[in-house]
Write a structure and sequence with these properties.
The protein is an alpha/beta fold and 400 residues long. The chain contains 17 helices and eleven strands. It has an eight-stranded mixed β-sheet with strand order 4-5-7-6-8-9-10-11, sandwiched between helices. A three-stranded antiparallel β-sheet has the order 1-2-3, with helices on one face. One of its GO terms (molecular function) is chlorophyllase activity.
């Protein structure tokens, strides 16, 4: 049962019956971050044959598929999902540091230089990894080792997530997270940095990159990598999508219910049950093998913290924030967009997906690659496919 099934269990029955069957179906996939379109997992691949942008050989090392239209680089073999490329979760957590933001909020972060990881003599710009809703630093465990070979890699838990503070009653906004990112660049990294974000983390990076430069004139952002960028902090941002228009009144009802502490707590308890989280993750991942017990626990553990419920309610019911469609034209620095075409939350046929797919024809600084058979979290779903496109792009960036 998903989070929206839990919502149905507390919404009065007479209100449910007033909604059309179509509206209820759309509600199932639009209320929270994990809002998947219903898919029969067992029959899906029988009904649709995919030509992936990358495939795996018998050694679980990936190669670019020369038959894919999205492949523009020569076929190559590089490290991917092998166990030795995944950073041990206990080591990752133990290595994290704390940074005091605004003199009052403890922000959890990681820097690869704290570990004895293999690194080439020629190092590119630092990277900052920014997770999506419900995730945290460990969501990048399959990427850090690979990226750290040529870069100093930072990763951050946004306020309200992971091991960062979750202040009770705090009103979360996209602008708050983008300012946190800018302050982290200015106070901690102190070098021009490439921002790499997923979902709402991508949008926070877009807002940060489109913000005016500091008075010092120092360039904080050198490049931008967007992995299935969200259109807003919640679904109320996607008002141009007929699926959202259809059930917008129901979303406002959900907002009202979530502001009732008892109802919100009951919903949240259902959402964070292991079986529910696993079902939700399976519906947003293209590669079902990536949905293991470790991933479920990565999402579940921070949800038990004091303040996690307040964060959940504030994010789902709060303002959606700036729209990337208005922000992207302001950005002239290099941008790489990677999009999983099996994403049920920001589908490629939705307004946000269509906009980003058209962006390379509008802005010469933007490169786009579709990742076939990949869901909403490409970096964890099929990290090899992401690295195949990301590493050459990073290597092509001008030196600062």
């Amino acid at each position: 049962m998903s989070a929206t099934n839990a919502l149905h269990s507390v919404v009065p029955s007479h209100l449910q019956t007033q909604a059309s069957a179509s509206s209820q179906s759309v509600l199932q996939r639009t209320v929270t971050f994990f809002t998947p379109r219903t898919r029969k997992l067992n029959s899906y691949h029988k009904n649709k044959r995919l030509i992936p942008a990358c495939v795996f050989n018998n050694d679980r090392r990936f190669i670019a598929n020369s038959n894919s239209a999205s492949t523009t680089t020569p076929i190559s073999v590089v490290s991917s999902d092998a166990a030795d490329s995944v950073l041990d979760l206990a080591v990752l957590k133990k290595t994290c540091r704390k940074w005091l933001w605004k003199g009052q909020y403890a922000i959890n972060y990681f820097v690869s230089s704290d570990l004895d990881l293999p690194q080439s003599s020629q190092t590119g710009p630092p990277l900052l990894l920014v997770h999506g809703f419900g995730a945290s630093i460990p969501h990048w465990r399959r990427n850090i080792k690979t990226l750290a070979h040529n870069h100093t890699v930072y990763a951050i838990d946004l306020l309200g997530f992971g091991a960062s503070d979750k202040p009770p009653g705090f009103s979360y906004t996209m602008e708050t997270w983008s300012q946190l990112i800018l302050d982290f660049l200015d106070e901690v990294i102190q070098k021009p940095t490439v921002l790499i974000g997923n979902s709402v983390g991508s949008l926070a990076c877009v807002i940060a990159a489109s913000s005016p430069q500091p008075d010092s004139g120092q360039t904080l952002v050198q490049g931008l990598v967007l992995l299935n960028c969200a259109g807003g902090m919640n679904n109320k941002a996607i008002v141009d999508d007929w699926r959202i228009k259809l059930i917008l009144p129901v979303l406002w009802l959900v907002d009202l219910l979530l502001k009732q502490k008892g109802i919100a707590s009951a919903i949240f308890e259902r959402v964070k049950q292991r079986e529910n989280l696993r079902d939700i993750l399976l519906s947003v991942y293209g590669n079902k093998e990536s949905v293991d017990e470790e991933l479920v626990e990565i999402i579940r553990e921070p949800a038990n913290d004091v303040g996690a419920l307040d964060a959940f309610v504030s994010i789902v019911t709060g303002p959606p924030g700036p729209n990337p469609v208005q922000l992207m034209p302001r950005i002239s620095l290099p941008v790489l967009v990677l999009w999983g075409d099996q994403d049920p939350f920001t589908p490629i046929d939705g307004p946000v997906g269509k906009y980003f797919s058209s962006l390379p024809s509008l802005q010469a600084n933007v490169k786009l690659f579709m990742l076939e058979g990949v869901g909403h979290c490409p970096h964890d779903d099929k990290p090899g496919c992401v690295h195949e496109k990301l590493l050459p792009w990073l290597a092509s960036l001008p030196t600062s």
